[in-house]
Every structure is written in C-alpha cells, then in structure tokens.
C-alpha cells in the first residue's frame, strides 16, 4: 500500500492516514472481503455484499492530524454524509464511527479506528471523453482534398469504443455537456436517454453510484435541477433502455448522434483493494 486517506463527504477535505504525519502500516484491518448469504439445502440464497465494520490502527505523528480526522469524521456522522476511504486509487464510501487511543505521548497518539465500509466493494473510476462533430454526418459537408482525386473525405464515422472491465460488470457515469436536446447514447445494446434540454454552458450528470441514484441538470449559472424523472428507465435492468444499466465486461461500441460531447466514467469493482496493482 502506498497511500491511504479519508475524504470527507462534507466539502471533500482529505485527511491522510499513511504519510509523514500518520502511519497505518499495512492497514490489514480494511483488507479482506466478505459475502452475506443464507445457507439452504445444498445451496446459498440472498447472496450480497453488505456494509461491514472493521478496525484500522493508525499512529498519528502530528496531533493536529488526529484532530483533523476527528472533526471531519464527526461532521460526516452528524450530517449523514459518508466520506470515502481511498487506498491507492481505489475507494469506498465509509464512516469512521469510533476512535480508541492505545498509546499517548506529547507528540503522537496511536489509536484504533472503527470504520464502517458501506458499499461492499472497492471502486476505481476510468474516464473517457467523447467529442461532438463540428459538422453533422447528414448535412452533405465533406473535406475537399487539395489533390485531383476521384473522392473527398466524408465526415468521420460516429462509431467510438471504450475498453471496459476485464471480468465484471461496470457501472457507468455520464457527464453530458450542453447544448444537447434529448441526449441518447447506445452502449452494449442499451440506450441511455433523457427527455430534456441541456443548455449551452450547462451539463447533465447521470450518477448510478449516488445514494440514492441521481440524474442532475446543472445550469450555466451553477444552479441544479433534479432530472431523475426525465431519464428513461424502461422496465429496469436489462430492459434495453435503462439509464443506470451497467456495461458487461469487454470492449464496447459507443453510438450517438455526435451533436453533443460527454465524459463516460466506468468503474472497476473489487471485493478488496487489489494486491498486485
């Protein structure tokens, strides 16, 4: 492990837990993984990854660093805004619910932190940008070559691709930039659609990992509108028109009319922070 930190859910302030001012060692308490399930006759049912409680020992070499973590963690708890525990680029929503000092001196304190990991998985996001065309593919405009050839260059293909997860399904987050009218994007056989207009200078965020899941329109002046009702949800998962549909493993074609640009963030998910990368 090279870096461990707690990022507050209220304001995004980061408290380092493995740096010059704090040492968490191998952080073995947050390693490992666990499934919840019920045992039946030669079977399992109700298989899921639930929130779990774990312990983390941290030696604070600066007392001010311990104070910072306490203030951030207590504010998140009192306001019900979970922070994130981040390990080498992987993160999970978390609360720090308890701190029990075990060694105290004038210059440092060692304590056992009780951490509740909320998501059941660790995630790492990868963002790919997709640009709009300056000329639509259907307006008859072409690139005229400066040579006497029997053809000109047409508008580039609207096909685009992204390389997704290697082994499991990947949640997809969209940030769609205006202007865009009724934006629609097709990936892995599913349409991601919203029946609204994204204004010039604004953007639309489709976030499947928000709690609860969210579709938010941000106007050019920074004001926000809850646009959840404007997003197409079809008949739910695997219906072919579900705004929060995760992508299956592998490489996927991305198809849209290229009248707008957007960022696509796909998330790797692991039961524990990977050991080998």
How many discrete domains? 2
**Tally of separate helices:** 1
CATH architecture of the largest domain: Sandwich
Low-confidence stretches: 136-142
Classify the fold: give the CATH topology of the largest domain: Jelly Rolls
- Averaged pLDDT: 90
Structural class: mainly beta
Q: Strand order, biggest sheet?
A: 2-1-7-8-9-6-3
Q: Work out the strand percent.
A: 35-45%
Task: Give the overall form.
Answer: globular
Elements, N to C (H/E): EEEEEEHEEEEEEEEEEEEEEE
For the record, give the distance between the C-alpha atoms at the N and C termini, rounded to a whole number: 10 Å
CATH classification, class level of the largest domain: Mainly Beta
Number of DSSP E strands: 21
**What percent of residues adopt helix (DSSP H or I)?**
under 10%
- What is the CA-based Rg, rounded? 23 Å
- Give a short account of the largest sheet: 7 strands, antiparallel
